[in-house]
Amino acid sequence: MFGLSAKDTRFLLIVMFLTLATPILLQPFPENSAMAQFNAGYPDLMQKFAIFGIFAIGFNILFGLTGYLSFGHAAFLGVGSYTVVWMYKLLSYNILPGLILSIIISGLFALLIGFISLRRSGIYFSILTLAFAQMSYNLAYSVLTPITNGETGLQVYSNDPQMLAGANAPTSPHLFGIVMRESSEFAVGGWVFTFNNGYYFCAIIAILAFYLSMRIFRSPFGMMLRAIKTNQTRLNYTGLNPRPYTLAAFVISGMYAGLAGGLLAAMDPLAGAERMQWTASGEVVLMTILGGAGTLMGPVLGAGFIKYFENIFSKINDNVLHSWFAFMPDGMEDFLVALVHPFVGKGWHLTLGILFMMVVIFLPGGLVEGMQRISRLFRRKKATKPGGPDHEHHPKPAPHVAE
Amino acid sequence: MEAILLQILNGLDKGSAYALIALGLTLIFGTLGVVNFAHGALFMIGAFCAVVMQRLLGLSFDQVDPSKTDFLGNPLVVQMPYVEKWFGPEIGAAIIDWSVPLAIFLAIPVMIALGFAMERGLIKHFYKRPHADQILVTFGLAIVLQEIIKYFFGANPIQSASPEAFAGSFDFGVLLGFDPNVIIYPYWRMVYFLFAALIIGGVFAFLQFTTFGMVVRAGMADRETVGLLGINIDRRFTIMFGLAAAVAGLAGVMYTPILSPNYHMGMEFLVLSFVVVVVGGMGSLPGAVLAGFLLGILQSFASMNEIKSVIPGIDQVIIYLIAILILLTRPRGLMGRKGVMED
């Protein structure tokens, strides 16, 4: 189905199900219960899962397949956001024209940057992309203020033309009348599920983006990109010029980033220059590596993981900690709270840094590799059971989808 | 003419900082072949060594001063720093005043120990891994170091003053026959430049004129052969890592009066220093120093109003623009050697 093998179709269907059921799956704990703070089923966070998932999927097409480590992808994110807000200002709050234009413009921008940066490889490529992104960021803050509105950030004012806006048009981002920020709530028992229009819009686009990246991974073009990562010299000797392929991968991943940036502005009609800063580029690198570069599912997992902990960990403060350890004797409780305190709340970046180092040191393949190792462990246990099938004479377990 | 001289002077102190950090980065890259993204964090920790020193010297106890009374007529309780008690009020006050230069003596052992710990505990395991992995793990380490500092010292910049003796500005123009007050230059920036020149000179002399330096240079050229000659090159490279960390730390200590240290200052300098290293040529020590000063001076030229009015925004992007131009025309950088990082 959809031009995929049966296994991939199954995988895609699972992803579709997981994405569409997120509002339910991420609310495992009843409201009012002590664990409710671990629920992630609120619209803001779910939108971020989908949007940064798209961003990381796109980044993975470049980094995971070709091995070119770009440190400047946030520039495209920012360009996408600015485009969408400008379309709000000029046309109307309908998000569609802005999103389409954000893909096109960030694609052109990526073509320009990629054409220059891809003349070099390795760390030189990283520095070149970093330089371009920092240039865009600095310019957005200073000289380009008429376009970007500088430090205030670009937003829609009441005296903007909005030429296509009808008399009764919604006054926040919408898709042909479907207002993004509106959501419907369902209470079942103690649980409250929020189904948000914006999230579902992002989710559908994310599924499409995932499907597209799956097709790219499976296509001859994807094989070509992997060949570039494995051995570029040999590719040259075969008489193939890798540049057009890498450039195409760069532009595609730039367009993904532009789309993600556009969606950020579609959920919240604001665009600021800090989206282009190199820390934002670093974040998408973290997401991809943490999840597992070069795998289909990894970047999405990484994005969800980081965004979840950013929101949940940073909410835990001392009071919450005290209530957790309340069952212990007083001295013990204070000691444990003091021990955990630096790692949560404002210090969650510390946890992220440590976690990230651990992943790079022990699990270079990211979370996906971790899961594979665990599943292999279980499989081996089964195989060694007395009387069990001799695995020497069985076909190897099917490789993971991404291999 | 005056303006040009002034901009060159202004560029020197920033250029010195870039040059020092880039020198350390290049030392590490040239010896161990590791791209160290945590080097900016080392610079930042050096700056916080100065803060710690300031606080240590400021440690004080309450003392009843019989000669003064508070508004109720009771004897006044004043805070008396221990240093003033031990060394007498005048010498004690002078020591506190000189806390930033004195922090050098704290920073050297701290940074060398930190460098050793980093190299032995973490970097050692990454020699054989791809450069991307090295970048990523040191990037993670930089986040961790930064957050630890933030936890102990808070997120706000901490002011630390230079000694009283260097507080003013030096009228440089009079010396060269210009009108007074045209070219003035703060004393401390001059001190910083001289200090940087001293360290850079020291590192080069160390590498050039000592047996240890000779072995290290031989190891940089051909690690395997030096190892085969029965020399424990790994140990020497570890020491070089400690030295590079100390250079970054000292650059940070002395920079505190110019820029109040905050926990993310390292990242800002790191990005620029990497650009400096690449412009200078990966693995070339003179290239790193040259590019550091060059970019520092160019940056201060670009922030002149005359130039900004011709090309708006140039001051924000000049460094990156230069880097892009250099990388595209001279891929090895200004003084890069053949065969370094060209795979």
TrEMBL record, chain A:
Region (Disordered) residue spans: 382-403
TM region positions: 12-29, 49-71, 91-116, 123-144, 198-217, 244-264, 284-309, 350-371
UniProt topology in membrane: Multi-pass membrane protein
Keyword line: Cell membrane, Membrane, Transmembrane, Transmembrane helix
Domain of life (superkingdom): Bacteria
Entry-linked InterPro entries: ABC_transp_permease, LivM-like
Compartments reported by the entry: Cell membrane
Pfam families assigned: BPD_transp_2
Protein name from the UniProt record: ABC-type branched-subunit amino acid transport system permease subunit
Organism of derivation: Rhodovulum iodosum
Organism phylogeny: Bacteria, Pseudomonadati, Pseudomonadota, Alphaproteobacteria, Rhodobacterales
From TrEMBL, chain B:
Pfam families documented for this protein: BPD_transp_2
Chief location: membrane
Record field: transmembrane: 15-35, 42-61, 91-114, 135-153, 191-216, 236-257, 269-298, 310-328
Topology class, membrane: Multi-pass membrane protein
Keywords: Amino-acid transport, Cell membrane, Membrane, Transmembrane, Transmembrane helix, Transport
CDD domains documented for this protein: TM_PBP1_LivH_like
Subcellular location field: Cell membrane
Classification via PANTHER family: ABC TRANSPORTER ATP-BINDING PROTEIN, BRANCHED-CHAIN AMINO ACID TRANSPORT SYSTEM PERMEASE PROTEIN LIVH
Family in the record: Belongs to the binding-protein-dependent transport system permease family. LivHM subfamily.
Protein name: Branched-chain amino acid transport system permease protein
